[in-house]
Amino acid sequence: NYKNLSRNVTALQQATEIVLGEYDLSTATDCITTWNCSLQTTRRSIDIVKIHPNFTASFYENDIALLFMNASVQFDNNIRPICLPFVSIVDITDVQQQTIYNTIWSNDSIPRQIWMRNVPRKNCREQIKNLFALTEGHICARIFGKHSVDMNGSAGSALQVDYHGRIFEYGLLSVGFPNETDAAPYLYIDIAKYINWIHESASM
């Protein structure tokens, strides 16, 4: 079996198919010109959904799952693996003001890179204290700049950073509060804290 990182455990009951190599949702084939088109998307059904055993729906604690596909995938220019961190690789104090980004489709037919900044845990906990209880498995990030972005429907999207020339996915979007306050940060699952569970589950 072959695996794919995902989250939003409560929505996984509706997951039926994984589509890989997609870019523009409004077209059947993505083309730059008539003669320059991408390969067809690759579709796989889901054999097994492995939910973290300590997931809690009340505070989305351990809000991560693995999807096992029914067949292998051939990597090409449209389908590539991404690195996962064994340890934290982002300065959570935001002293260095690292630029990170969240890639989402949102209401657009093509994905958007939303530039983000880390929010230190102490600050994050204070900002959301009346909305949510921050857990140890969460990290926080805010949209960088005063941009209006609709993140609705983007749960499970990747929080990424360029680290020593490689792109790492180090967070999964778990919780947002767009209807409560524009200042509230978004909560992400800290992948580094779950890397052992991911490896153990994937090798079974």
Automatic annotation (TrEMBL):
Domain Peptidase S1: 9-203
Molecular function terms from GO: serine-type endopeptidase activity
InterPro entries: Peptidase_S1_PA (IPR009003), Peptidase_S1_PA_chymotrypsin (IPR043504), Ser/Thr_Proteases_Immune/Dev (IPR051487), Trypsin_dom (IPR001254)
Main location: secreted
Residue ranges of coiled coil: none
Compartment list: Secreted
Recorded superkingdom: Eukaryota
Keywords, ordered alphabetically: Disulfide bond, Glycoprotein, Immunity, Innate immunity, Secreted, Signal
SMART domains: Tryp_SPc
Example GO biological process: proteolysis
Pfam families given in the database record: Trypsin (PF00089)
A GO CC annotation given for this chain: extracellular region
Tagged with keyword Secreted: yes
Similarity comment text for this entry: Belongs to the peptidase S1 family. CLIP subfamily.
Protein name per UniProt: Peptidase S1 domain-containing protein
Organism annotation: Anopheles melas
Lineage: Eukaryota, Metazoa, Ecdysozoa, Arthropoda, Hexapoda
